[in-house]
User: What shape does this take?
Amino acid sequence: MDLSLSTRTVGDRTVVEVGGEIDVYTAPKLREQLVELVNDGSYHLVVDMEGVDFLDSTGLGVLVGGLKRVRAHEGSLRLVCNQERILKIFRITGLTKVFPIHTSVEDAVQATD
Amino acid sequence: MATVELLFSALPEHVRTARLVAAAVARRAGVDEAVLDEVRLAVGEACTRAVGLHASHGVTTPVRVVLIEDEKKFSIEVGDDAPHLSAADAAAGGPGEASGAPEEGEDDMGLAVISGLVDDVEVTADESGGLIRMSWPTIPAPVLP
Assistant: This one.
């Protein structure tokens, strides 16, 4: 399965809905999307990962890269994920401490820290 | 004896194929369903790392994946032909800062994920290439409740 990406704006947040597999082959597409959004001035991103079937360390690298970019503009990058197998990868790598992970897009959009 | 051997050109698009083949063979070998996700992720990480190493060293040979079914365990070996630094060379170069640019540290992150996922893992490397060997226990034929 390939990667699917779609974006929408909710208030001052941009929600990126990701579906399919994020791996060494597809991760560059996600990286391009995040870079493009930041370049266009979207600094508060919510990445909805509920449709993601597979995520590897390349995908984690892209998300960390996205976080770095938005933080350079005092922005935020929040994740939405309820899938245990995806959450496990964030846990193993200690990235649960780096990313705010929410259970719903609504929750992520309203969150302010 | 290897149950299945897979050789693939060191290109990112083939890593998914390796994941699917490994998961299918692991399932047949009797690896617990709950662990198949880990097998898929670990073999993907190992292949991603091998593909990256071949690309960065200009190695044109394929990446090797060997899937071995034993009586009580299922093993996967992922081999690359990239020259690895000896321990002495690596020490001379100094260890990279873990907090460096994350997008440049993906190889290390891949290994971190593998070691976090797999209990039985062995990473070896010399100037002619590297090998990641991982294994999982298999469960015997299903027992009725």
The CA atoms of residues 60 and 67 of chain A lie 11 Å apart. Chain A has one domain: 19-110.
